[in-house]
Input
Amino acid sequence: MGKQRTGRATRAHCVVVCEVDHEDPANRLTSERNQFSIAKLSADGDPGPVPAREPAFGEPRTGSLMLMPYTGYANDGELTLHGRVLRARKSTLAEGRTSAWRNFIALVRLMNSAEVPGATVCAHLRSSDHQAVTDREGYFAFTIPLDRKLERDVEIDLRLLAPAAGDGVPIVARAMICVPPVSARFGVISDIDDTIVWTHVGNRRRMLWTLARSNAATRKPLAGVAALYRALHDGVEGDEGNPIFYVSSSPWNLYPPLVDFLRINGIPRGPIFLRDWGRHMLHDWRDHATHKLASIRGIMTTFAHLPFVLVGDSAEQDPEIYRQVVREFPRRVAAIYIHSVSASAARCAEITNIAEEVRALDSSLLLVPDSEKAAINEARAGRIGNDRIEHVLLDERVEKQLPAS
Output
């Protein structure tokens, strides 16, 4: 495990010790919250099959060019994968002891990406190779027809064909593909800011301050979210593998720390839909409804056999966006949960009116103060087990005892 780290980074270290102690339920919960990280560590050196997992982006990279694949997804007939070709920059490991200044410098490096346009990327799936060329901002996209469906999450190999690295060393990467199993009963589409991680998006100055001085190891998740999302992923049967998709208006430059944040906090992995913040986006950076709606439409169309639970917050437009989704996809939205982060009476009244409209469309929208209320409602609906409510409660207690980010 290496040296013990301070702050939030110590949690992954402590969990190995806590997992042996079966007497304290809070300790058991702490172990559960980190089961994703533990599974990753346990897999090291295992000669057997290793399930697909998110790459860790905090690791230093060698070479002047790098492939950054984003988590892809596949239904029965088609695989979709996006990513980017960039020139590597010096990185800073996400640690609890990293200073605010170093976190700020790391953020500046992330945002100041060096894209590689016109690069040729090869994806190898089964026995076939597929090629894509990056656009002017370094993005590549694969849409690959499947002659037979994939049965579970997989990893596929990527290789940069051109330009070649200066030292002649091949530039390669592995991309994870999310494949909902046949046991999946529903999917989850979740916002990110102020829904799973505190960013204070309603206060731009505080949001920028939080983002600039913290990192994936010190950012604070909303209390109970990790346990709630694991319960949703597992379903009432415990092994349903219900897929979770994350949609945000944050730029793709923030993809690496978001992936690390999910991994560190034991929140189930899944495809993340962000947006390009290139020069052409500067004039409409506040309009995130268009991006979110397009992403959600794509997800629900791709997985047309699944109903979905939508999770967001009250700070911006999530209630309005989700109402539109209910209108466009009748009887496909099982429930909507809006985390209450706005104390405005006027905003609460607006959301109450939206909830009535959603109810008339044969769905539900609940304004919830915490993860516990959402867990209770999901257990009543038969989508998670009753025992998972206690897990969410314990997770909330653990999170509230951690220092603020």
